[in-house]
Write a structure and sequence with these properties.
Trna Endonuclease, Chain: A, domain 1; single chain; 16 helices; 7-stranded mixed sheet; alpha/beta; 2 domains; 14% strand; 344 residues
Length: 344
């Protein structure tokens, strides 16, 4: 190939593969560097604990360590007093958990801090460590899931669905992982008994928050999605596509407690989606019925003979104050004015 010859397809393929190798090596280098740093922090935490236990060093030694290390390595080296205390806590948290030590090096230090400082026990820490690795949660996403107690809301024993009988085993496992037992929709700030369409419209206005709560892999298609049967038209509250599941996901919003007839309606919608919307390469559509309350036994009996895969989950909202009560409370500006008066 000379300078005057256009690059042929073999060269384009070659350079594409080369770029992928370069990116892959860079990623491995970053992960390797992170793992080494986490190992170092664990070792520093171990040394601090050992010296305090054997030599009786007090709290002041950590402050002195920070001054000496910052003097040697710089202000942004990560050796602040607070960070050294975190290293000590990091070691104490995982020293007796060798099964979790294999995961901590796979995520950034900031995410590690969130997990070992916010999570109550080993099971909860394991959940957030594994999911942060699996889904690539950044620090903000991880913080959201910890603050909204996703660990509890994702508990398999509280999940109500028929995935095991309605889907092949590999899809059943994935669908069970994807659908939560409870969704935190407190960002909506609507009344608990608000009309379903109002909840839906507010969700659309906050679709980014809703996608974050749904979890990794969901793509929004439309609300009030129209499906037809003969001359009749029907409208699904919310329609999504899940990339990993490779399937349409229909969501119906209900205010109040689950009713058995909701499952029949969802079964009907899923039949229509599979027959008229689903692409040949896609897996069967699944449904999620979101209610403010449910009776687990009632849901179990309802789903026994339902053919299409669906789950029933609850959701919580942050209620707005009634208008008359809101008017009776002082505004932010009025409170600030009162505070200023009190300080004079």
């Amino acid at each position: 190939m000379n300078d005057n010859t256009p690059f042929d397809q073999s060269y384009k393929s070659f350079i594409k593969d080369l770029k992928q190798k370069i990116y892959g090596t860079k990623t491995k280098a970053i992960l390797s560097a992170n793992r080494l740093m986490i190992e170092l922090y664990f070792e520093i935490g171990r040394e601090i604990v050992a010296k305090q236990e054997t030599l009786g060093w007090g709290k002041s030694v950590v402050e002195q360590m920070s001054r000496d290390l910052v003097s040697e390595f710089g202000e942004k080296s990560g050796y602040s007093t607070q960070n050294l205390w975190y290293m000590r806590q990091f070691y104490n948290t995982y020293k007796d958990s060798p099964n979790l030590q294999q995961f901590v090096g796979e995520i950034p230090w900031g995410s590690n801090i969130l997990i070992f400082s916010k999570c109550k026990d080993e099971q909860e820490r394991e959940y957030y460590l594994k999911n942060t690795i699996a889904f690539g949660w950044n620090r903000n996403v991880l913080m959201h899931h910890i603050k909204t107690d996703l660990f509890r809301r994702d508990d398999r024993k509280d999940k109500s669905n028929n995935f095991e009988v309605a889907l092949p085993s590999h899809l059943s496992e994935l669908a069970t992982d994807i659908v939560k037992s409870e969704y935190n929709l407190e960002f909506l700030e609507v009344a608990k008994d608000a009309h379903e369409r109002h909840v839906e419209n507010t969700l659309i206005e906050n679709i980014k928050h809703f996608l974050l709560e749904l979890g990794y892999g969901f793509s929004f298609i439309d609300n009030q999605y129209k499906v037809s049967l003969g001359e009749n038209e029907y409208f699904i509250d919310l329609l999504f596509f899940h990339r990993k599941l490779n399937a349409l996901v229909a969501i119906e919003l209900k205010v109040g407690k689950f009713r058995p007839e909701y499952a029949g309606k969802m079964n009907f919608y899923l039949n229509l989606l599979n027959d008229t919307v689903r692409m040949p390469h896609e897996n069967p559509a699944i449904g999620i019925i979101l209610c403010t309350d449910k009776d687990g036994l009632e849901v179990e009996y309802t789903l026994q003979n339902v053919m299409q895969p669906m789950g029933v989950s609850t959701y919580t909202v942050k209620e707005k104050l009634p208008e008359e009560l809101a008017k009776a409370l002082p505004t932010k500006e009025e409170l600030e004015a009162k505070l200023k008066e009190g300080n004079q």
